[in-house]
Amino acid sequence: MKRKGFALLPFIVFIVLFAGGGILAGDFYAMPALVAFMAALFVALLQNRELSFNRKLEIISKGAGDVNIITMVLIFLVAGAFSGIVSAAGGVESTVNFGLSILPAQYMIVGLFLIGCFISISMGTSMGTITALAPIAVGIAKQTGFPIEICIGAVVSGAMFGDNLSMISDTTIAAVRTQGVEMKDKFRENFKIVLPAAIITIALFYFESTSLTFDQTASYEYSLVKVIPYIVVLVGALLGFNVFAVLISGVALSMIVGITTNTFTFFEGISAIGNGMNGLFEISLISIIVACIVALIKENGGIDLIIAGIKKTARGKKGAELGIALLSFFVDLCTANNTVAIVLSGPIAKEIGDEFEVAPKRVASILDIFASVGQGLIPYGAQLLTAAALVVEGGFKITPIDIIPQLYYPMLMGISGLVFILFRRQK
Prior knowledge:
By secondary structure, the protein is mainly alpha-helical. The chain is built from 21 helices and no strands.
């Protein structure tokens, strides 16, 4: 059963149903992602008759219970709680109005990207960055009339910057450990590759913003007290505190601010927290179902199939580096988790690197970059699903696919990585 191409059928089913249904209907809401993923899981359960149904249930239960999945779901719940209570307390509106009152319009989108970069590199998590900044992006879009796709695209782009580069990011730690290199060496190698992508992204967002205008003569009312929860969350993120501690602190402060300013009562605040959690209920279920599908795909040899194919076709140092890039990218497409993709492909990448004498720090950088490129662009990944869920919760109609054209940084990161492989000599 191992290494059979049909092991990847569940994800093909999902893509056909989700993307195909959206194209045919002219509306990607016509096929809910949860329904498409359930259909894919059903297909996965029908595969591989060598396994009993009870054994398959054991496999998907183990996949769903993975520490990364449980952690992700808990982050969703806490992030939803913060989003709900800070909005109810007036924190989002005050934060947005404060920014609008001091920043020229052409710097708004660039500001979202740069703040996202700083938060993500400090927190080491793209998910925490997206959940902290997405409500602000929604507020800016509402107040200025800027397209929400651009605003949220800047947030996700900034989030992926630190997800790939931060020294406390799971992906970075996984890449370094699988290749046996020093963190500082990988950081230096990685930074040189992605810096051009970040600079070009800033330029693109700036020039795109110059055509966007709004009435800066209007009066934007804000309360600095209501901005405090966001300041605490952002500063805590920049200092590298645990994402749970940062978000829970934001929830507590928002509750205190809301009650002391008579914005809501204690029980109204509790209700706002519950509503915020409910807003991310679907994405939590999707994350669990994706983990179940991936567990069966891995059991049926889908991941092994990709790894073996790339290892077989690698020729020379550049070919080996391209093979490692493709390995990391395609495993991420199948797992929808860049940390898991690096853990799965890291040992094989080390074998390829050792065989073709590729420096371990280069292997670690390529692994991390291309897993992050895939994770930043796939519409069924946690990052885009979460971003879209938070935007929809804010009152906009948007799908993960709508965000992809504005994800300049992940695209440019991939291009920069390819240029690095093809044209830069290895010492």
